[in-house]
Every structure is written in C-alpha cells, then in structure tokens.
Amino acid sequence: MAVKNEEIYPNCQTTIRTVEIGGLTKSQLILKIQQQAILMNEFGKMLFADDKFKTSDSKYIIETVELTVQDLGLAKGGTITQIFSKANQLDLKLCPLELGPYLRLEYLDQPEGEINSRQQDQAPYGSITVASEIPTEDDKFPKGFYLRRIAGVLWLRGYICDDQHVWEPSDHFIFVKQSGPVAE
How many domains does the chain have? Predict the structure, then answer.
C-alpha cells in the first residue's frame, strides 16, 4: 500500500496574517497589553525586561505564516534548530522578537486552549509559538514568545527549551513570509 506524502509548505494549510509592528516604546507596549487585560508569565516579563528585547521606533508591516511543524516536512517533530533550518529552506524567515506582543494585541479571537497536565515539557494545546531569533544560548533564559488563550484569558508567554527538546508535529509556529518578486 502506498503512503501519500504529507503536504508541506507552501502546499499546505496555513494562516496568513498581516501585522503592523513598531512605533511604541517598551513601556507603551506593556501599557497596551495591560489595557487589553492580556496576562504575561514570568518568562514573558523576563524577555520584556531584557536589553535584548528591542522595539522599533518606526512602524512597519510584515506578513506572517502560521503552520505546524509537520507542515515544514518534519513528520516526527523536530528540535528548534531543525525547525528553524527547515523553515529557512522553505523561504520562511524568523520573526523579530517584538512581533510577539504586537501579534498578541491584534489576535484577540484566538481559540481556547485546553489545560492538560500530561503536556508537561511540551507546547500547550492551542498555543502558537512565534519563531524568532534566540536571544541567548542560556537554556534558563526564555527563547521567545508564544500566544495562548486559557479560560477566556489571553496570554503572552515566554518559553524555555534546550537544543534537545523535540517539538511535536502538531505544534504551531509563526514565521515571516519571504517577499519575492511579484509575478505578472
């Protein structure tokens, strides 16, 4: 019996979002997050407080692509290095770190995630990880942000993982879509 190959990006189901980012200071961004009643975990707060988290003075627009690890061609999952490498091969770029907070402010209708105690050391069900440059090699410092909705509450959370952690094929990531020449 022949097994059909899974479709991989760009020939798979994706969610495309256009997001305006930049133009706010860290303080202004935190205030907007608080005004929307968005919660942050301690890792998210650590990212915000660190000098490696920079905000752009001017506004700009990027197009993002949300897909699963499997959509990148990693049917058995992969490490963060494998995921980022595969995305790069498929002409997807890493997001600026500041995208996480701006995306959270725009994506207010995220579906509910479940609280599942069996998912320890795994991305929570319903979460979306923003694939961004890793600020430091320190495994105890957050690697980036992820978005989640729990019991009706929106979260902007930071996450930690080491180079050995294997993400599940069903885990969702957001990348920046490469802009190419427009075909006529």
Answer: 1
